[in-house]
């Protein structure tokens, strides 16, 4: 089945404001890895249909082929469940902001970030792939796995841009969509070798072993973990191959309804150290004690939906969203500068404050002092930001096997 994007399509809509769901952020912040963006549309093979989304400030628009596959929920019901639209995100943001001044500052630039409620099997395999990996590469691996073993749902012709010289369309692209393969498709003896050829590396063996374990227990066992307490769920998940505490927490949070699960990786460790007073550690890897302490701290701070709140700060810490973070820092710097000027005026009076001075009577020495103080504060903040970015690049280089000196890393960040 081949379908054209230019053909007339039936769009339906749900009333969802951007403050409750921002798909341009949620679908690319490392929760799900199969969504594809084309222009202002997002598409994915989901629950036996090809689903396409658009968003306006007030509505979520959706189109599906088919809208209601036999034996599956309607697309509207699927979306309400997938995005957990029964939960008021605005109320949660207010609650977290009241408890945490740092969250309040960050969240003003990162609204509409909510947790997806994914298929547990797909979510589990995707995060086994995430070990020592980045979002772009994980997406490629998961797409490759679906292409190799998933059921084909059809293909869509994506219109190409027009050549500016002759006005003719450039080469048109056809995108094929495949459903996520069930466990039994990944149990064969030949699967590991084929996965390795697709670039899965050591994760290939983990996926095959986990597929066999889940297949033996049955998918109902995995989905049934939604009904069990968080600690029991985590204990069950870490028995699977390739699943440690962080992957277990990701699956518990993103597909098994455990809103208080807080996955802790290097990003979250840096956030805890930089913004929440956790001491530096000499260990290159997280100890179990530190991992548990960070999760418990955030659960005490944000409450039973701590995993949801954590995802906002995690997203803000990703380099792909750094523009929004810089904007927040710039606004904070402007406020700090304004306050500093008031302090300087009080400090440079004659001992009686500035009660007798008008703005026009401020001495030249006072204005110079203000400029110097402001310059020092801004320079300090910029240096701290650059240092944080260099540290993050060093980690990324290490886990991806990119040898480089500190000087080379600094040069790359300055480019």
UniProtKB/TrEMBL annotation:
SMART domains, per the entry = ENDO3c (SM00478)
Q: Which reaction does it catalyse?
A: 2'-deoxyribonucleotide-(2'-deoxyribose 5'-phosphate)-2'-deoxyribonucleotide-DNA = a 3'-end 2'-deoxyribonucleotide-(2,3-dehydro-2,3-deoxyribose 5'-phosphate)-DNA + a 5'-end 5'-phospho-2'-deoxyribonucleoside-DNA + H(+)
EC code(s) of this entry:
4.2.99.18
Provide any one GO MF term from the record: 8-oxo-7,8-dihydroguanine DNA N-glycosylase activity
Q: Where is this region: Disordered?
A: 391-415
Annotated PANTHER family:
8-OXOGUANINE DNA GLYCOSYLASE (PTHR10242), N-GLYCOSYLASE_DNA LYASE (PTHR10242:SF2)
Hey, which family's this protein in?
Belongs to the type-1 OGG1 family.
Put simply, this protein is called DNA-(apurinic or apyrimidinic site) lyase
Q: Which organism is it from?
A: Pyronema omphalodes (strain CBS 100304) (Pyronema confluens)
